[in-house]
Amino acid sequence: MMRFLLPLLLALAGLGAGVGAGLFLRPAAEAPSADDATGGEGAAAAAADAHAPAADPAGEGHSGTPEEQPEYAKLNNQFIVPIIEDGRVASMVILSLSLEVPPGGTEQVYAVEPKLRDGMLSVLFDHANAGGFRGAFTEAANLVALRRALLEVARSVLGPTAIDVLITDIMRQDS
Length: 175
Known about the structure:
Blueprint: H1 2-25, H2 34-38, H3 41-51, E1 71-74, E2 79-85, E3 88-101, H4 106-111, H5 113-129, H6 140-158, E4 164-174
Helix pairs in contact: 5-6
């Protein structure tokens, strides 16, 4: 009997502590203000503010409502680009890419991902062969040119669904 009583008491103590913590940490309910109770101008202004779109801190022209925010489709695998010098692999560049698409566009990206990856790999190999990954390869001008070329491929496959290409990770490993 005693061996069942101790676990039961511990379970009840844990349940009580959980309920007490939940009640203690619950957010405080907001009391209605005098304007809200009378339906005055303050209530109308607060309602208008609640339905107004949020400010765009980045200034990129995207509305603040979640339905209008772009989505980001992260391409599943990294891109590995060999850098060939004197007939041998001198280094490897590894990139992770994402596509900025309108809401609901991620499914379209994943549906054509093999074709998209093929075109992007061609662009990355051309960039590597032109020397784009040598020296200061993270220089802004190099990355802008690379993003522009990748976006052209994305738009040729996806059309206007592709808004932008984001390079989320880039690394070069020299051998």
